[in-house]
Specification:
Order of helices and strands: HHH
Shape: elongated
Strand content: under 5%
Number of strands: 0
Largest sheet: none
Helix content: 55-70%
Radius of gyration: 16 Å
Length: 75
């Protein structure tokens, strides 16, 4: 079976989710590893940590947005 080709990370055209993912990778110290070898080079622990942090940040952003919306509506 042929190995899958690794898609290069295009730093010029990132989606907001990809940008967040790279930001978190930099925070936990795997940014250079990702740029050199791709996402598949990460361990399950590193990948899980990134996913968990992304989920927490998305939930916090949704909560803040709904709180701001509620505050605007109550005036």
């Amino acid at each position: 079976m042929k190995p899958k080709k690794e898609k290069k990370i295009d730093l010029e055209n990132l989606t907001p989710e990809e940008s967040l993912k790279l930001e978190i990778a930099a925070e936990i110290g795997v940014y250079d590893k990702v740029l050199e070898s791709g996402w598949r080079s990460l361990t399950a622990k590193e990948s899980g940590r990134i996913g968990g942090m992304m989920t927490r940040r998305k939930k916090a952003a949704e909560k803040a947005a709904s709180a701001a919306k509620a505050a605007d509506g109550s005036e």
